Amino acid sequence: MMIPVRCFTCGNVIAEHWEEFKSRAREGDEDPGKVLDELGVERHCCRRMMVSHKDLVDVVSPYQ
Amino acid sequence: MAHDFDVEFIERGDRKARFLVRGLTPAIANGIRRAMIADVPTLSIDSVRFVENSSVMFDEMIALRLGLVPLTTSLDDFEEGDEVTLALDVEGPATAYSGDMVSSVEYVQPADENIPIIELKEGQHLEFEADAVLDSGKSHAKHQGGVAVGYRHLQKVEVVGDTPEFDDGEPNILRGVIETEDGELIHTDEFGNDLTQQFPGKEVEVSDVPGAFVFHVETDGSFTVEELVLRAVESLGLRAAELEEKVSV
């Protein structure tokens, strides 16, 4: 639903980078790998958290 | 202590550091690693009183997310079990961030302010009071101050000759920190983890240096790496002293 606060595997806080990653790599046209490098998300366990995430708040909110 | 340890920093930051320690046994190196993960306490939200939550997430889900937000912890001012109250009140349409939380103690703040807690739509409202408690990583992973803590042997790279004339040029991959013959410490990332890049045309031999460990330590932002390592070593010393006292009777 929302981006997990921490990486499932290593416990690093990744959620703080989500909005920048989303605006630059998902909605923008930058290369996701380069954006993650710049954000300091180095390990592939943390990178998969960002790459594979889908926000579902908009999908769920009409059914309150 | 019977002898001193020799510590040398290779990379040093507030939240991330790599340093070499000489004169350790593998048991002590692992003891320090484990103390960094499980023994150094951090503040983390443990119980939440919801005043109103009309967001798309259940109270429990939001409480879980809050628990994972790192809080700046000054270990001199707190003892294990001490509590700090934080409060948040956000009305939609807006996103509630960790930085929106208001703390009762000025120097206890969320270490990262941009963590989205929950996105609120028009008419949704989130209001709660939360109690953060100081506890160690033994009781819950959210209290772990150290993240991705580990160590490797220091590796010595010696040039033993030239590569044969018709060498097939295969890469010689190595990870970690190497010590050259001049005593220089280089992380293998600097030359693409490939020894043939650093020593072109040379035949090299790699061996572990006994008693020398390269630690890689990251923290979640609760405190600096320095604080984490010193507290871990202190807790190890205290436990050893306690054991000595109990056995001596």
UniProtKB/TrEMBL annotation, chain A:
Catalytic class of the enzyme: transferase
Entry's EC annotation: 2.7.7.6
UniProt xrefs under InterPro entries: RNA_pol_su_RPB10, RNA_pol_suN_Zn-BS, RPABC5/Rpb10
Pfam families: RNA_pol_N
GO biological process, one term: DNA-templated transcription
Molecular function as annotated in GO: DNA binding; DNA-directed RNA polymerase activity; zinc ion binding
Catalysed transformations (reactions): RNA(n) + a ribonucleoside 5'-triphosphate = RNA(n+1) + diphosphate
Cofactors: Zn(2+)
Compartment(s) of residence: Cytoplasm
Nucleotide-binding listed as a keyword: no
Annotated residues for binding of Zn(2+): 7, 10, 45-46
Textual note on the cofactor: Binds 1 zinc ion.
GO cellular component, one term: cytoplasm
Keywords from the UniProt entry: Cytoplasm, DNA-directed RNA polymerase, Metal-binding, Nucleotidyltransferase, Transcription, Transferase, Zinc
Family classification: Belongs to the archaeal Rpo10/eukaryotic RPB10 RNA polymerase subunit family.
Subunit structure: Part of the RNA polymerase complex.
Annotated function: DNA-dependent RNA polymerase (RNAP) catalyzes the transcription of DNA into RNA using the four ribonucleoside triphosphates as substrates.
Record's protein name: DNA-directed RNA polymerase subunit Rpo10
TrEMBL record, chain B:
UniProt keyword Nucleus present: no
UniProt entry keywords in alphabetical sequence: Cytoplasm, DNA-directed RNA polymerase, Nucleotidyltransferase, Transcription, Transferase
Domain of life per record: Archaea
One Pfam family of this chain: RNA_pol_L
Domain DNA-directed RNA polymerase RpoA/D/Rpb3-type, first and last residues per copy: 16-246
GO CC annotation: cytoplasm; DNA-directed RNA polymerase complex
Main location: cytoplasm
Catalyzed reaction equations: RNA(n) + a ribonucleoside 5'-triphosphate = RNA(n+1) + diphosphate
Enzyme Commission number(s) of this protein: 2.7.7.6
Gene3D superfamilies: 3.30.70.3110, DNA-directed RNA polymerase, insert domain (2.170.120.12), RNA polymerase, RBP11-like subunit (3.30.1360.10)
Subcellular location: Cytoplasm
GO biological process, any: DNA-templated transcription
Subunit composition and interactions: Part of the RNA polymerase complex.
Protein name per Swiss-Prot or TrEMBL: DNA-directed RNA polymerase subunit Rpo3
Source organism per UniProt: Halogranum rubrum
